[in-house]
Specification:
Elements (H helix, E strand, L loop, with lengths): L6 E5 L4 H5 L2 H14 L17 H4 L11 E10 L3 H8 L12 E8 L7 E6 L7 E10 L4 E10 L6 E8 L6 E10 L6 H27 L2
Parallel strand pairs: 1-2
Antiparallel strand pairs: 2-8, 3-4, 4-5, 5-6, 6-7, 7-8
Helix pairs in contact: 2-5, 4-5
Length: 218
């Protein structure tokens, strides 16, 4: 049975502090959260005010292989045209443009099409140093990107992420939905794993908002 998604909606204007500080410090805080977090605030369900096309939900319905996985999603509303946001998100060869926990990326197989493999190296302070990732979906028409982690030195086994972009229901701006499924590492709980991953995803999407809004003003 598919695992139902929990959704956390964020507005980057209310979370400046998480992305304005030093990346290493933020990484260390995320790692500490992963290792020490003991309380978990339940996420809200997708609000009626956020309109996501029905055909997008199928991409955010993950089917874990067992009870040792967690699955969730984060929504970011960005005050920028969809084209500006997508121009950043679709660059599988340059994720460090907005993912602040990555310091470098190189393609090892392929040239950016589906099936391409990339190797990314992470900043210090995280319980990982590198990750090998495969591009699973790149749909320029529907604005969908999905990748899975297939190797590297990290604890996020069987990680798969799906990101979809949608026009804001207000007529201006973009709604970004990013969901994931991942194994729960030995020694950690489901809640601890979700908090850790969502800290990373939230930080990435807030950084994406800043970059896309700057691009949208040009």
């Amino acid at each position: 049975m598919p695992m139902s998604l929990e959704v956390h909606i964020i507005n980057h204007h209310h979370h400046r502090s998480i992305i304005s500080g030093d990346t290493t410090s933020t990484a260390a805080a995320a790692a500490a959260t992963f290792n020490n977090h003991k309380q978990f605030q339940p996420l809200s369900r997708l609000p009626a005010s956020v309109s996501v096309p029905d055909d997008a939900f199928v991409y955010h319905t993950h089917e874990p292989v067992g009870q040792n996985q967690c699955c969730s999603a984060v929504i970011q509303v960005i005050a920028a045209p969809l084209s500006a946001v997508w121009s950043v998100v679709r660059r599988f060869d340059n994720p460090q443009a907005y993912k602040r926990f990555l310091k470098s990326c190189r393609l090892i197989i392929g040239d950016g099409d589906v099936g391409t493999l990339r190797e990314v190296h992470l900043v210090s302070g995280l319980p990982a140093t590198s990750s090998t990732e495969r591009l699973e979906i790149l749909d320029d028409a529907r604005h969908i990107l999905s990748f899975s982690i297939v190797g590297g030195d990290h604890r996020l086994n069987n990680y798969r992420s799906v990101t979809t972009l949608h026009m804001s229901p207000t007529g201006f701006g973009t709604v970004v939905v990013e969901s994931y499924v991942v194994d729960i590492p030995p020694g950690n709980t489901k809640d601890e794993t979700c908090v850790f991953v969502e800290t990373i995803v939230r930080c990435n999407l807030q950084s994406l908002a800043r970059i896309a809004e700057t691009l949208g003003q040009r």
